Structures are given as structure tokens and as C-alpha cells.
Amino acid sequence: MWPPQVGPPPHIHHTQDETFYVLEGEMEFVTEERTTTTRATAGSFVHIPKGMLRAYKNVGNGPARAIVLFTPGGFEGFFEEMGEPVTDPSMPPEGEPEAERLVATAAKYGCEIPPP
Length: 116
Description:
- With 116 residues, this protein is of the alpha+beta class.
- It has helices at 76-82, 99-108, and strands at 11-13, 17-24, 26-31, 38-41, 45-48, 53-58, 65-71, 111-112.
- It has one domain: Jelly Rolls (Sandwich), CATH 2.60.120.
- The protein is 15% helix and 34% strand.
- The strands form two sheets. The protein has a five-stranded antiparallel sheet with strand order 4-3-6-1-8. Strands 5-2-7 form a three-stranded antiparallel sheet, with no helix packed on it.
- The longest helix is centred in the C-terminal third of the chain and has 10 residues, at 99-108.
- It is globular and about 30 Å long.
């Protein structure tokens, strides 16, 4: 789930394709191969091949939910290392993760987060 106006920084998955099936809300996807953005609402399917710079965020006013598939598997380890247990799903997470830790952990799982 993504709160309104939230999404990860631009990044590249070098070892996995990333596929989204949007369940709720409105997401915006930007990839290096497109000069325009792709808007996706509930029922939309978006596939981003490995090796492509991508960014996405919830552009709606309410929460967005999607099923996200990584092929092949293995990237779930990133979320296990970086994630924190949710105590109240109605509240967004507090603060931003430490940038150095985020970049280093992503790299362990084949994901590059280029500098801004």
C-alpha cells in the first residue's frame, strides 16, 4: 500500500522484471523508454523489464494498493531487511530510511538507486 503522493526513488532492477496489478487508487509510472508517464487505475497491469530505469508513485488522494511481482524471485529479501512491522495500517510510515543503508541493501538484491 502506498499513501497519497508516495513512491520509491528512481531505480533499476538489474536481475528482475517488475510487474504491477493495480487493485485500488491511481499510480503513475515513468520509465526511461517513455517520454510520457503511464497512469494506471484499478484493474491495470504494468510490466517493467529488468535493466530499465523506473519510478512510480501514488498520484491519487487516497491509498493505492497493488500486487507487485518480481521475476525471478529473490527481491523479497530487500523488503525483509529494510521493512518494519506495521502497527497501524491506516498511518503512513514515519520518516525516510537512511539513504546509505537503502542504496547498499538494494544493491545486495540487484537493484541500483542512482544519485539524484
